[in-house]
Design a protein that fits this description.
2 copies of one chain form a homodimer. Chain A has about 400 residues and is of the alpha/beta class. Chain A has helices spanning about 5-15, 45-60, 65, 75-85, 100-110, 125-140, 155, 180-190, 280-295, 300-320, 345-355, 380-395, 400-405; strands spanning about 30, 90-95, 120, 145-150, 160-170, 195, 215-220, 235, 325, 340, 360, 360-365, 365-370. In chain A, a hairpin with a 3-residue loop joins β12 and β13 (about 365-370). In chain A, α1 packs antiparallel against α12. The longest helix of chain A has 22 residues, at about 300-320. At the A-B interface, α2, α3, α5, α6 and α9 of A face α2, α3, α5, α6 and α9 of B.
């Protein structure tokens, strides 16, 4: 298949979501294919952030906790995220970072499965997830162990000592999407829990935690949810575990009566028990704007467009860039919204693309990642990006010192 | 003593820091005496937040991690806070919330004192600190225990099983200030560590962690440091413990090479090992503006003015409001920058004051708190606030249903 630019223009013209692009103020001359790492700001996020800072923090000061809904923000925004991930509003809270939330829920999984000690994960998993599980296991000594096995051995490795299987729904490097319902069922068959990291899927593809019978989940606010750099993360606890789960980061916000100022911690009876410290109001303002934008979009249309964009990207790359390997599944239903390619000079190629205004990213040793978004990516941008990639490869334009020079953040 | 308003005006006229008030855009008609709970925004914070959101997040997008110093923000801002708390720049990092940081450092204290199991704290301590220690102790089972004793028994309770004494430098309810050096020395005499919470002292009074030989500390960004509601917190690890301390929240940001994307966590050799997840850039932008403002101020002048303001507050209250008890130490050197009064109708009195534009806060069952700031409080505001308080008491203006009605957040 080799689609012409005119045909890409026709796809944009027929796109029912094309108008959403106006919700963003993306810089001229840039094709942004890294929303899977940092989503761009909706215009409303900038406005809401200013208002929260000037009118709420600056004018109402401490009274904002009552006047402006600050105290309710973690559960209010969690309830909105719930609608994007197939959860009930009372099952989701916004809190902390993905890493901190994973710590809470992994410890929580052990509390729900007393007598079991194994946390099971795969090699090559999103590093911070493995790192957090290592930290928890090291802290707990003989009461917990982390078992990391290759992807292909994972399901068979679930056993009667497994407290929880911990997996990212869409893999950060390959974009491979697990069948959440099937994997969760396999965990349940051995009495284990399924703890999902939906950081690379929430807001990107269909996520239905309750349909899959997921037990626990964490997710990121700043990738496909457009919540801002380092935005607060979220966590999900299935209703059947609320009230039973125990997590160790028992801060004041998770107390049954935060303003009782008691010495003894009594956990809140609901998902607030999974929150810890004071809500980061400024960051939450930006996050809520991103979530609200996502909620305004027809999910079926968004999923169809996301699949079409990434399918187009793959088709054009395979037609025009034979030097590149495809590290992602070819079927959209088995992927997230980023496409991963391989090339030994991947780093320099990504830099050369950036010099032409096409922003993707690189993951060592050889993966080039390009993410699309049904909210702001145009079909013509996909076409233009692959054309730039094709040209850079054909002319070896990447083979220059300035493109090979490593930056601090890749 | 009974100072006239004219004399208060003279104090303002002679105040070398009076001009700092212009750095804030406080609302008309409000006397804000709650900066100890939520510091107001410096004008520069609003500007910096807008710039970070629009120009960095919105224009440079993912490239901001390299272009705009995002990756270095936790240690850069930590290094600035270090100058306010008597630490070296490489001993402080900004991360997470105070509660989460306390969890990390309390676990870290246990790692530094193998064989010891006791975390020692006082009854009536800042609740979230006790709650977090309870969560850690519950998680660790027989490997840790939390011992909570009355303030007067605390020093005597330090023993050979004490891994760390955990204390807030300035008490949230009474404003009582511990002698950090003396208490730390008492801990060290038994081989225990001293872990200080400087949430109510950093940015308010003189804090000199290294002069006191403090081992570990956490602190809040949104009270006296004016970092914004729910601002990121900070943590301090004395140089002699860096490289040895082990904390359990081992996220990607604390990895020796965050972009190596390794399965195995290798902690950074420096204070970055105490960080966990992706830095909250928007919140950090506001926090850094607050810190920069504090760094622009002569610390000796600020401490002298803070003591004078709170001394004046107490003197005027004692002269004009005999119904009120004083819950804070009378000597400024033994207090923080908030003054705590007691009255059985404290809640209604605080509400009645708020209705007149004087903002303090209330802590159950009977404490009224009023905080001053050398950056933005005027001596005449102290005078006017106490005059309002005197009048409300004299006329029993607080004794109305609308002032007694409880709000969600007190």
């Amino acid at each position: 298949m080799s689609l012409s630019r005119g045909e890409a223009e026709a796809l944009d013209a027929a796109d029912p979501l094309a108008g959403l692009r106006q919700e963003f103020d993306l810089p001229d001359g840039v094709i942004y294919l890294d929303g899977n790492s940092l989503g761009p700001p909706p215009r409303t996020a900038l406005a809401r952030l200013s208002r929260t800072a000037a009118a709420e923090w600056g004018r109402d000061l401490i009274l904002s906790w009552n006047l402006n809904g600050w105290m309710e923000a973690p559960l209010r925004i969690g309830g909105k995220i719930a609608r994007l991930v197939g959860a009930e509003p009372h099952e989701v809270a916004v809190a902390d970072s993905t890493s901190v939330n994973l710590f809470k829920l992994a410890a929580g999984a052990l509390s729900l499965r007393p007598g079991r000690t194994t946390l099971l994960a795969q090699t090559g998993e999103f590093p911070t997830d493995l790192h957090i599980l290592q930290g928890l296991a090291a802290l707990l000594g003989e009461r917990a162990r982390l078992r990391i096995v290759p992807e292909g051995e994972l399901i068979a490795a679930i056993d009667e000592d497994t407290a929880a299987l911990v997996l990212t729904h869409v893999h950060y490097r390959t974009s491979r999407r697990w069948d959440m319902a099937a994997v969760t069922a396999a965990a349940h068959a051995k009495g284990a829990l399924a703890l999902w990291d939906v950081s690379h899927s929430a807001g990107a593809i269909g996520v239905d935690l309750n349909a899959a019978r997921a037990d626990l989940a964490v997710g990121c606010g700043y990738k496909h949810l457009n919540g801002g750099p380092g935005a607060p993360a979220f966590l999900f606890v299935a209703e059947r575990h609320l009230g039973t789960i125990r997590q160790p980061l028992t801060g004041w916000l998770g107390h049954a009566e935060p303003f009782a100022f008691e010495d003894l911690h009594r956990p809140a009876p609901d998902v607030r028990a999974l929150t810890t410290g004071t809500p980061p109001i400024l960051s939450l303002a930006a996050l809520e704007a991103g979530i609200d934008l996502h909620l305004s979009v027809d999910r079926a249309q968004a999923e169809a467009k996301g699949a079409a964009l990434s399918d187009l990207f793959i088709a054009l790359v395979e037609a025009g860039c034979p030097e590149l390997g495809l590290a992602s599944p070819r079927r959209a239903a088995e992927r997230g919204l980023h496409v991963s390619l391989t090339h030994k000079d991947g780093y320099a190629i990504v830099q050369a693309l950036a010099a032409r205004g096409v922003i993707g990213d690189f993951r060592a040793p050889d993966v080039l990642r390009f993410g699309v978004s049904p909210l702001f990516t145009r079909f013509t941008e996909v076409w233009d990006a692959v054309e730039a990639l094709r040209d850079i490869l054909a002319t070896r334009a990447y083979d220059r010192p300035e493109h090979r020079a490593r930056k601090a953040v890749t």
